[in-house]
Specification:
The protein has 237 residues and is an alpha+beta fold. It is built from eight helices and five strands, in the order αααββββααβααα. It starts with 7 loop residues before the first helix and ends in a 10-residue tail after the last helix.
């Protein structure tokens, strides 16, 4: 019985067609490739957050930290100047904004007592003004002043640094010991036990508003936090 021979083109095309179909099936099952359109995935292949905070973070310039040489707290003016001209010092403005059940002194400015719903620990912290108790609640510069100095503020005028140090967006009443533990650290070095999403979003908002940059390590830490809260928006001023 004569043997039927397969034509050469068919012998080549059939295996090739099977290979193409296998590749297409593998891609469909694997999902988008890591090198897809900007904003669809992060370097680790996870879906990138799409909230306003993540978008603003991607727009921030990334540079290594400047030298900290020359930094002093006084480079940002006296502590808690009355920059808005309302007759009250900035610390009392922030305490009045962030505390509940606030009791003021007769001057209408000085906060004597109140209760803080602390964003960094989730605890309710009673505040009472006095030498031994005032530090229980402190006002945090969300972007630490020394960290700001290292990422752009060194080049500012003295007036700009005073405005920055008293900007309400940059300030939060928080647990005193946690604020002391933070010191001059950036987000790659310290994050609060609770509320990291809101904390990083506020840092991004401050840096965006004031033209500060982020270091590579800082950007990575911020992106990692925001990946866990993909819809996180920037805080309003």
């Amino acid at each position: 019985m004569p043997v039927r021979r397969t034509s050469a083109p068919a012998a080549i095309l059939v295996p090739l067609l099977v290979l193409v179909l296998a590749v297409l099936l593998w891609r469909a099952l694997s999902g988008p490739a890591p090198g897809g359109p900007a904003g669809t995935s992060d370097p680790g292949g996870r879906a990138a957050p799409t909230g306003g905070a993540a978008q603003a973070l991607r727009a921030l310039p990334v540079r290594e930290a400047d030298t900290g040489a020359g930094y002093q707290r006084t480079r940002f003016g006296e502590s808690w100047a009355d920059v808005d001209g309302n007759g009250c010092r900035t610390r009392d403005d922030v305490l009045r904004r962030d505390l509940e059940d606030v009791r003021l002194d007769g001057d209408g400015c000085t906060v004597l007592s109140g209760t803080l719903d602390d964003p960094y620990s989730g605890r309710e912290i009673p505040f009472r003004r006095g030498p031994a108790t005032s530090s229980d609640v402190q006002v945090d510069h969300v972007v630490a002043l020394a960290a700001a100095w290292r990422t752009g503020a060194r080049a500012w005028s003295a007036e700009e640094r005073v405005e920055f140090a008293n900007d309400p967006l940059e300030l939060l009443a928080v647990d005193g010991p946690l604020n002391s533990a933070k010191g001059d650290d950036d987000a790659s070095q310290w994050l609060p036990p609770l509320g990291a999403c809101e904390y990083v979003a506020r840092q991004v908002a401050v840096k965006s508003a004031w033209g500060l940059w982020v270091t590579p390590a800082e950007r990575t830490a911020m992106a990692d936090v925001l990946a866990g809260c993909p819809g996180q928006e920037l805080p309003a001023r």
